[in-house]
């Protein structure tokens, strides 16, 4: 005969993280979903104060005095010693009718980190696209008169004796330089020529080029997952992406330091796309390019994928904007995190078709 599982067993099997605190707000019980969220065992977490976990939770300063649940949205949860994640938190006082007071507090947590990340990325992508369209429009408009200017300088040069062509040569040279810049701003319009490729082969080729440019004071370390499957992308575009990121790293390290190339498989990943919003993929390839250079300042970090944002005197600030554009054309996503001594650019590229649409 089938019997219903006990409430304790149900608590164990809930996919929502649930924590139980005593009236003085010390943790007494936590289910496995909670342990997974906090990345620590129940034993290690036992007795910890609620405000250590939720330093901003107003409800816990004056815990509810009725049995009705109270929800706080977008709270920081301190994943001890590592980082903070954002959660929605519902607190219910387990009410004792006899004493007319709460005998314990039940806290349910929903991780909203990924949802927030996607919303933020989507809004950044839209802003980014608007800026890029504006720049493309401007670049297009400048190209035509520039062509005329260069042509006129060439005609003029032909009329002049050789020893008087110094100024026309400057005009032609500068017009060419501007033309190159505008071509980069306009970006490539050809659709990606996708084929099944091995990521490690592309990484190896790019590494060789960068190694030649950087010299002996840069050490490359490869941490590859050998079981990585092939991916369906444009090999030349992936080459350009990796080359730009590695060149930036070498420039930031001033040709001296360590560059780690890491590959991994990611499962169940949501990737943001500017046109189609976020999509869920079952499998994706992750490529990390990590350097131990000076890092990127926080204010700069938010803008590095925008065109014309540069921290280098001789930079045009187009490299990463082109990189992001190429990755989106191949259905991928790029992220960056940085602190002094550790900057990591991460490229995600899906292995399969999207399984479902998320968000809007
Ligand atoms: N690995 C890194 N470490 C530190 N700073 C970086 C790193 N990668 C990029 N940056 C910063 O981001 C800025 C933007 O990079 P981006 O490639 O878009 O332009 P750029 O390198 O300045 O010019 P270019 O158009 O020639 O590539 C850089 O100028 C640099 O300040
Ligand atoms: Mg660059």
Structurally, the number of domains stands at 3
Main sheet? 6 strands, mixed
Number of helices: 11
What is the molecular shape? elongated
Return residue spans where pLDDT drops below 50 for at least 5 consecutive residues.
356-360
Q: What is the CA-CA span between the terminal residues?
A: 46 Å
Output the CATH class name of the largest domain: Alpha Beta
Order of helices and strands: HEEHHHHEEEHHEHEEHEEHHEEE
Q: What's the mean pLDDT score?
A: 87
Content-based structural category: alpha+beta
Fourth-level CATH superfamily of the largest domain = Histidine kinase-like ATPase, C-terminal domain
The CATH architecture of the largest domain is 2-Layer Sandwich
Write down how many β-strands occur, each being a DSSP E stretch of 2 or more residues: 13
Report helical residue fraction: 25-40%
What portion of the residues fall into strands of 2 or more residues?
25-35%
The set of bound ligands, ions and cofactors reads: adenosine-5'-triphosphate, magnesium ion
**Remind me, CATH topology of the largest domain?**
Heat Shock Protein 90
**CA-atom Rg in angstroms:** 28 Å
GO molecular function: ATP binding; phosphorelay sensor kinase activity
EC number: 2.7.13.3
Pfam families: HATPase_c, HisKA
Protein name: histidine kinase
